[in-house]
Structure formats: structure tokens, C-alpha cells
Design goal:
The protein is an alpha/beta fold. The chain has two domains: 6-85, DNA polymerase beta, N-terminal domain-like (DNA polymerase, domain 1), CATH 1.10.150; 93-357, TIM Barrel (Alpha-Beta Barrel), CATH 3.20.20. The protein is built from 14 helices and seven strands. The protein has helices at 6-19, 24-38, 42-51, 62-72, 78-85, 93-101, 119-128, 151-167, 192-197, 213-225, 263-273, 290-298, 318-327, 341-357; strands at residues 104-108, 133-136, 173-181, 200-204, 231-232, 276-280, 302-306. It has a seven-stranded parallel sheet with strand order 1-2-3-4-5-6-7. Helix 1 packs antiparallel against helix 2 and helix 1 (6-19) packs across helix 4 (62-72). The chain is elongated and about 70 Å long.
Length: 358
Amino acid sequence: MTTRDPVADLRRIAFLLERANEATYRVKAFRSAAATIAALPRDELTRRATEGTLAELAGVGDVTARCVTESLAGEEPVYLRRLAATEGTDLDGAAAVLREALRGDCHAHSDWSDGGSPIEEMALAAVELGHEYLVLTDHSPKLTVAHGLTAARLRDQLDHVARINDALPDGFRILTGIEVDILADGSLDQDDDLLARLDVVVGSVHSGLRDDAAKMTRRMLAAIANPHLDILGHMTGRKVAAPGAGDRGHRAGRTRPPSDFDLAKVLAACTEHGKAVEINSRPDRLDPPKRMLTVAVEAGCLFSIDTDAHAPGQLDWQRYGCERAALCGVPADRVVNTWPADRLLEWTAGHHTAGSLS
């Protein structure tokens, strides 16, 4: 009989559901069952599977119990087999080449803010995808709805990441970061001394998205000029309809038009200060729109193709950003997360140095 790991099978199902942007409750059912099963000895699992009592365990339902039973019998669970058969097609041409060139992801969240999984699970999923690094960018304090990190909690997270990195596989590391709110006056929502300690800072507008063009432009230009900001996150703030129910805080079907600002001035500032424009790969964002992305390529901007992942399976959403980047002619050598970690960090450190000299 072929040996299978029921915990790994449950987690793989959850990963594929996340990747497909399915409802959070479905993902949680499989992750909760995996956590319960992982804590039990193999002989107890086998006994319960034989007796048909797996569903009596907290966090295990009829569907997940069936998956565990099939896995213990050496069979690929039917649920997993069906998901794997419909998980999508491979990337084509230039998009596949670009995806292969990516070494990491510069925008991802954990359960320290509004993500659904621990930092460790996000990191291990990134390892399985072949990443060399993952930038952890939980939210800043003003975004209370997303449980943004106070200065004290961010310091605690930095210590936690240092401990995790010591235990991660060779050749991979978590880079410290934040998705910091760009406030109404263009300042960044975190202490300067803490921002200076971080490896990568993504700055995004989350409030006042309907401000008039002049006000929004001033706000974005001030943030881009800040030496602590490295990447301008989801530039227009738009939301588009996406399949599935999505994760907490990112409901599919809720649309929002892009913010109004002077695109030419914003892109010129990004080029002048050496800051990257994020190509946000979330199916409910796909930001910036292709018409703006094409203009950014012509303006000579740097880019970062990121997932804005809030769950492990969403880390595979980079494919969507790569498809859009390839369509718009984004050169791979201008995508900062095609660079090795040391070069990426040299680039971000250069912003601090330039700011200190100005």
C-alpha cells in the first residue's frame, strides 16, 4: 500500500482552494482539520478511520474525515484529485519566462495583521513555490480594520522573524517589511526609526481614495519622495470583480474605480527617486490597469510583481501579474524581485542613503 500523509493532503487542498480564490470557510475547514490531525498519533488516526469516528474530532467534518480516510488507505483523496485536475493551465511564452525569473514576493501578509496564516506557513509555502525570499508586509497601525501593527508589535515581529529565519531551509529567508499606509498628507504611518530597520517598505493608499486628483497627486508624490518607501503598492486602489468568495477583507464582486491622480507626475517621481511600481497580482485588484502599466514601461519605471497574499495558496497568484506584465512589455531586468536578495537589499538601502544626503 502506498504511504500518504493525510496532513499534507489536507494542506494541499487548502492551498489549491486559496489559489482558486475560494471562500474562506472552505479553506479554514481543511486547515483546521490538518491542525487537529497533525496533533494525533498515527495509530489513533488509523483506529478512528477504521471505526468511522474521525468526524467526532473538533475541527474535522465529514468531508475532511473522508479525505483523511482515503489518504490513510494510500489513495489520493478524491477531493484533492478533482481540485488538481481543474487547477488551471500553465503560463505561456513571455509570461512563463518572467514567472521563472522571479526570485521572491515583496508583498505578503500573515495573521499578525489581516492574513489568515502564521508567518511560518507563509514562508514554507514560498519555499515550495521555489522562492528565495518572501517579504513580510503586514499592515501599519492606522489600518485598524486590518489589525495593523503598532510600533511595539512590529518590534516583536522583527524578533520573531529572526528566530524563524534560523530554522528555515538553506537558501531561503524572510525579509522584514511592512505595507505602510500613505496618510492624507503623504507621510508614512510608522516611526521613521522602525522603517529604517526594515528590508523593504511598500507604501499604499487605503483611505480617502476618492480625493480629487490634485490632492491625491500631492499625497502620492510626498510618499514617493520619502526615503523609507521602496515600492508604491496597488497604485490606483481599484477593485475589480473576481471569481470565488476570496479571503477575509477582500470580497469578490465588490468593485471600486481607480483613484484619480496625475499619472505622468507620479511615474516621473518613481523614476526620479528609483522607486518601484507594484504590479499587484490579486484577481480582485490587477492594479495598475494595463493602459497605465504600458505608460509606466515607457516612463522607464522599475516594477515589483507581487501577490499581496493573505494566505499560503495566494502566493501562487504571481502568474496573473506576470501575464499582465508580459502583455505590456515589462522587461524582466526592471522587475526588482527578479533580483537576488542581496541586490534587492542594496537597492532599498540606496533610498535611505539618498534621502540622508538630500
